[in-house]
Structure formats: C-alpha cells, structure tokens
Amino acid sequence: MNILLTTRLPQQGFARLKRHNIIIPQTAFFTEQELLAHAQSCDILVPTFDYKIGKDTILSMPNLKLIANFGAGYNNIDIATAKHQGIIVTNTPQPVVEPTAELAFALMISISKRLAELDRKLRTTNDIIFGVMNNLGTSLRGKTLGIIGMGRIGTSLALKAKAFGMNIIYHNRHRVNTDTEKELNAQYVSLEHLLSTADFVSLNLPYTPQVRHLINKETLSLMKPNAILINTARGAIVDEKALIDALQDKRIQAAALDVYEFEPHISEQLLTLDNVLLAPHIGTCTIEGRLDMCDNICDNIEAFLAQQPEKMNIVN
User: Fold this and answer.
1) Is 102 one of the catalytic residues?
2) Which one of 263, 265, 288, 302 is the catalytic residue?
3) Catalytic annotation on 263?
4) 192 assigned to active site
C-alpha cells in the first residue's frame, strides 16, 4: 500500500505503518509537480489542513482510496469530487481539542491584559509609562464568554473559562444536552443575544460555506463597544474588512486572531492596530498535539485497511 504524505511530518508518528510504503517529501512539503509525479501509485493520501487537494489532484490519482486529512478542518479538500470518486475522507478531530482550546484561552487572557501590545511597546518605543492607572487591562472573572460552536473545542474552552469565574453563554446548531449545560453552567442563546451580551466572543465552529462571513458588518454592530473577538476556527468565518473597520473605529474593543480570511496573507491594517493580537495559525501547534494527530491518522488508515468504517473519523 502506497501512503503519500504531502508534508514532512514526524516520522516516528507513522512507525505503526512501516510495513507499507510511506512516501514523504525531502523538503517541507511536496510541490504540485512533485505530488503529481506520485499520482499514479498513490493509494492513500495524507494532506495537512493547509495543503489544498482540489478536483484536478483527486482525478489525477486513479488508485486513490482514502484521503486521511491531518487536521480537524477539511475545507482544504474537494469533498464533492472525493465522494463522487468513491474516495473516503477522514479527519483528526480529537487531538486538536485541547491545544486549540488552550490557545483560545491564552489569546483571551493575553488580549484582555494587553500583553502583546505592551511587550511590543516596551521593546520598540518609549511610550510606556509605569503607574497605578496606566496600562489598564480587563479582568476575566465575572465577564460573559459567548462561545459560537459548542463542540469539543468549545466545551473545553467553556470548562477553562468556568474555572476562571466567567459566565458562559453559547450558540450552536443544536443545543447540547442538559447534563453538559449543567457541568459548564452554560446557557443556550440565540446568535443575536450572544453577540449583544458577551464581553468575549469566541469562534469555535467548523467552517462550511454557510458560515462564511458569519461575523460581518451587521453582526459586529450587535457587539458591545468593550467586546473582544477571539477566532481560532477559520479565517473566512469573519469578514476581515468589516472587522478592521470595527477595530479602527473602536466599535469593538479588540480582537485576537489565529486565522485569517486570506491566509497566509494578513491584511496590512491588522498589523498596524494595537488592539489586535495576531498568531500564525498555531491552534494545534504543540509537540504532543502533532504526535497525537499522527496517531489518529494511523488509527484511520488501519481501520480503513481492516474494513472497519465504524472506527474511522469519516467526514463525507
């Protein structure tokens, strides 16, 4: 079985599959031409969440049976074409939960305490004045966190926020069960109520075309002037231009972003604003997280080869 990795991932993470022919790039990732050179022999494709697998790529691989995506999100893959070709697509939802929830919480703490802004100014300017009433931030205790997308990541974030004494409200496609709501002390509300009430709004929902620009000029206008937006989901959920306008006009207090609408390009205006904290899509970037994702990939591949679909994280 020929298993092709689009990106150079930790080789020890795939030791379980050593009896198969694992093809890995010599550099960071395969170029399009290099990928196509292996197209005829590829049985299983392992792309990373930032590596686009479009229609032409899928159709160029006549023996392809499984796309085992390295990541929870799978908008990098043309799912419709894969399904039409009878190709199974899997993802790795569980290993990304804790690293991403930890980052969302870290961004929330950092932006509320203005850590990146003040660190930058201490290093590059003379603008910082030490003093009792200078450089004030915002406390988390007693504030309301609005979580849009109460899946695994949203639930983990809610547990962390609860430990810090925050009030939790959430909006989801479906209301979570009563026991989970009680454990989190979380209240299910409409999207409009969440946006108009929350002090912090965290985006933790999967990307689909239906949620593109869910956060736009209209929905941003519902948010409080002292509200802070956190996005560790997908960049296109936010209309970046509308967000920049809202930040520049101080219609919301701040934003902390790990993902961007035009990623890897970051809008220049975001780079100039003090009330924005930026991270380079590092939601799952921990050593442990990467190895766990490799392990989950191996689980999916072994279940596929054993014809045990019930043990696979199938997305299509």
Assistant:
1) no
2) 263
3) yes
4) no
Statement to judge: residues 173 and 272 lie in one domain: yes
Question: What token pair was written down for 96?
Answer: 């990304």
Please pick, among 171, 234, 240, 261, the residue that the annotation labels catalytic.
234
Active-site residue among 98, 102, 171, 281? Answer: 281
Tens of pLDDT, residue by residue over 63-101, are 999 999 999 989 899 999 999 999 999 999 999 999 999
Q: Tell me the residue range of the domain where 22 lies.
A: 2-95+286-311
Q: Characterise 230 by phi-psi region: left (phi > 0), alpha (psi -120 to 50), beta (else).
A: beta
Residues 15 and 143 in one domain: no
For the chain, the first-to-last Cα distance in angstroms comes to: 22
pLDDT in tens, 5-50: 999 999 999 999 999 999 999 999 999 999 999 999 999 999 999 8
Please report the pLDDT score of residue 21 as a whole number: 96
